[in-house]
Amino acid sequence: MSTTGQIIRCKAAVAWEAGKPLVMEEVEVAPPQKHEVRIKILFTSLCHTDVYFWEAKGQTPLFPRIFGHEAGGIVESVGEGVTDLQPGDHVLPIFTGECGDCPDCHSEESTMCDLLRINTERGGMIHDGESRFSINGKPIHHFLGTSTFSEYTVVHSGQVAKINPDAPLDKVCIVSCGLSTGLGATLNVAKPKKGQGVAIFGLGAVGLAAAEGARIAGASRIIGVDLNSQRFDQAKEFGVTEFVNPRDHDKPVQQVIAEMTNGGVDRSVECTGSVQAMIQAFECVHDGWGVAVLVGVPSKDDAFKTHPMNFLNERTLKGTFFGNYKPKTDIPGVVEKYMNKELELEKFITHTVPFSEIKKAFDYMLKGESIRCIITMGA
Ligand code: NAD
Ligand code: ZN
């Protein structure tokens, strides 16, 4: 029986309050409106960005809300004006979009779509500002336009990448955020030359994906920096060659790295969300040519402070969302890299839990035990 045009009742993990365990609820998911698609989510995973906004310690709180933005699923139905997607397509919802029509989308350089760029404060759909989720008539806010901790969700079609239907969604779902973000931060933004050294701050999934990018680019040294030394064993499998735990040193980590690298590392990629680590990642690159790339999501009141002389000495600081990939244009190609065995995804997936036990995925991340935990919907 087709559900097109009907309200769908399904399970969703709802965050009612900041930092309180998600509650499994039956929600109503309205049909997709203009330029929207409704997706049956099959697999989702947890990224640290979900946890920050759920904790809402350094972020604007917006509740009740359905989190989740790293996922894979199948299109159930499409709204008016959607021509590039149809029911049955295998897709990855993406937290940032590509409308295809704005100056940013027309630019080869920009991935900051005017209409669909990441917006953490929006709780409704762009079309009418309303939510497509409700419980007994009470609206539940969306998160990043994706809200994948629900068996069905509604997403703007510009935030949906159509991928190879042969790709296993339980693996490629991680391409929808963390993997592409880290990989692209190195390959598309830091752009290390073959034989150069790269320092990676933060060895979670995003940082390890950045390390994977460094390996693919032919980096000679990959220096991993993390406050959690347990990360170091895992990181060896990702080609990280040396490790620095800032807690093991009396001097600033910038100085430790400068001493290890004869004056500074060629490239650094920050994947922690800590503003201290962002400053360290910038100040540890070599003068004359060093490039630092910021990826971690800061708290809302953070400020980046460094001496301007660090720029005059010809260091470059950049930042990126989603590794500068255009979601619709480029992401199918990242999935193909996995299908062609150029990219390994399995090593990122350390845990799997059924949707009913989503709390465990939060526990693994908060304890720093998981790289990625895949949450299987319908289980
Ligand atoms: P994660 O929690 O799995 O990994 C973060 C790692 O950083 C942890 O191992 C932690 O011990 C380490 N760390 C924290 N503070 C540190 C410090 N001061 N110095 C050294 N190491 C430190 O998180 P993740 O899912 O890999 O995400 C990493 C960051 O990237 C988060 O801030 C997340 O919000 C952000 N992110 C950004 C984008 C983007 O498009 N820019 C996309 C996805 C995630
Ligand atoms: Zn656009």
Automatic annotation (TrEMBL):
It comes from the Eukaryota. Residues 19-375 form the Enoyl reductase (ER) domain. GO terms for biological process: formaldehyde catabolic process. It is found in: Cytoplasm. Its main location: cytoplasm. Gene3D superfamilies: Medium-chain alcohol dehydrogenases, catalytic domain, NAD(P)-binding Rossmann-like Domain. Its EC number is 1.1.1.1. Pfam families: ADH_N, ADH_zinc_N. Keywords: Cytoplasm, Metal-binding, NAD, Oxidoreductase, Zinc. Its cofactor is Zn(2+). GO terms for cellular component: cytosol. Signal peptide: none annotated. It is an enzyme of class 1 (oxidoreductase). GO terms for molecular function: alcohol dehydrogenase (NAD+) activity; S-(hydroxymethyl)glutathione dehydrogenase [NAD(P)+] activity; zinc ion binding. Belongs to the zinc-containing alcohol dehydrogenase family. Homodimer. This is alcohol dehydrogenase. The gene is Adh.
